[in-house]
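Notebook p. 47: complex prediction with adenosine-5'-triphosphate.
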Amino acid sequence: MANVAPLPRGCPPCPSPRPDDPAADTGPAPRDIRGQLRLGATWRLLKPYWVSDDRKAALGLLALVVGLNLALVAANVWLTNWNRVFYNALEARDFAAFKLQLAHFCAIAAAFIVIAIMKQFYTMMLEMRWRTWLTGEWLQRWTSGQAYYRVEQSHGADNPDQRLAEDLRTLASTSLTLSLGLLNSVVTLLSFVTLLWTLSGPLVFALGGRTVAIPGYMVWFAVLYAVAGSWLTHRIGKPLIGLSFRQEQTEADFRYALMRLRENAEGIALYGGEPAERAGLRASFDHIRENWRWLMIYTRRLVFVNSGYGQVAIVFPLIVAAPHYFSGAITLGVLMQIASAFGQVQGALSWFVDGYASLVGWQAAANRLLDFQSALGAAEAEHAARDGLRGIALLERDRTPAPGAITAAGLVLALPGRNERRPLTEPFSMTVRPGERLLVTGPSGAGKSVLFRAMAGIWPYGRGAIERPADARTLFLPQRSYVPSGTLAAALDYPSPPGTHDDATLAALLRDCRLERLAGQLQRRDNWGMRLSPGEQQRLAFARAILQRPDFLFLDEATSALDEETEAAMYALLVERLPRAAIVSIAHRSTVARWHDRHLRYRPVHAAGEEPRYLPAPAALPHPV
Ligand SMILES: Nc1ncnc2c1ncn2[C@@H]1O[C@H](COP(=O)(O)OP(=O)(O)OP(=O)(O)O)[C@@H](O)[C@H]1O
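Predicted complex, structure tokens below:
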């Protein structure tokens, strides 16, 4: 995970492209939308849930929450009326009425408490329902078509984990809070606007020899005041959207750096890398602090506008209504009532000003999701473009040119880049027939693993077509196989579901793979990827390959951590247990050669000083040393 570029002086409020992005220095930079208010696009993020399969339950819950919200407003009105009656009873020293009103109060308070609890409870329920649906949908896209891999490879979006975990939560919860707040404002507005209209009467003045009358003029003043306040708030507060976006990014980068320290604890401890790590973590935290400084500055401006707006709102109606009062048109009581109604109307109209800070966080989270959505879209397009229109085609065929074989024709492997893709190889062709064993060798960095990735359909960069029998099962074992946490039995069964094979089968296989020490620990839960030695993990991967019974098995330096004798035992086991499987091995060690019957060698074809380029071509098998 990369660090964020420090904010230059003068603060561009939005993060600049990340320095580690390989595409950052090529091609025109895309328009930066991360600090924008994008209501239309955000609406398209919110809408799908409300038209999904869950819509009935969602709309039912929403109706309930809205109803409870309105009931709370009604309870407030009830309380206001109770106030009048209660104080009148006190003033009249009417003890019987006093007792009755106390009983009323108990009823109002009980209703209030019950409604408030229910409102909170059902809002939380709706929030989690929405979040569950959103998370399910986004996880589906994230884990389909190797999008998680493609987005990482292309540096399409920083910290996807934070976007899936936090931004989706913020989207669901803040959308509900903001929209319920808006509803309350509308209800309050409707309740008081007629009162203010009636109380304030028309404003009559002469203009160019004509008499002009503005009915309900205080309402218009309240609208003007709120519009001016909203405009000013947005002007002053807009940079906060970009800053909030960046704050989330820097926080997530810092968390990720801490997580990497944990994950690589052993390597760092062995290097004695604490000072370097500490410096890296401090630098990462500095980005948080630096951005926070700008957040403070812009928040100070926003609070200045907000509180100024709130303070002026206290005297504004009095000033506007004062001419009527001084002309004797209204009494002091009416003036005060106008001021109070104006306060209610103006308060309702100020939903935008008052909620701006929440709106900023909400829009920043939505922008991060929109950004993520376009990275996912690009990954999906890349996956769909495996037909070769825009890269290497991976075609699953009922009949391939050589029966049952994987064939590659006119293949050019290239490196990723936004506009220009640097070719790694000259065009070449190859065939892997059922049951044959092919050794792939070449200099480090020549593109051998890239060839495997292309065969697996996760490397679209380049040209040409790979044809694979549609019913063929392929399995790729990298140098460090993925070992999930959980029971050892589940790690062996992976990617099949846990319990696919019984413990006796697994224990026998572990013994065959020279892991008898682990045979008694099949049901033990552990972080096996951290606990097992690299050589043990490679043997575990062999065991898994035998269980999966692929037709084509690709081994990318899968025995690099084994001694030669164990390596030979593992290959012998593969040949014995998977006699019909084709085996394609990438290896630097010549001892591996004896298990193969063909050889594909990457031969350099570039001149000295040029960008490296290779031609993979058939060659004689190397002799074991
Ligand atoms: N995601 C990526 N983005 C940019 N370049 C990449 C990416 N993945 C690999 N490369 C580059 O592609 C080239 C080929 O990598 P590859 O892993 O295929 O080499 P290799 O032949 O398997 O090397 P080795 O024998 O050392 O394992 C290397 O220069 C590598 O840095």
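Notes: The chain is about 60% helix and 10% strand. Residues 22, 153, 415-416, 424, 442, 444-450 surround adenosine-5'-triphosphate (CB under 6 Å).
Next step: compare against the earlier run before touching the bench.
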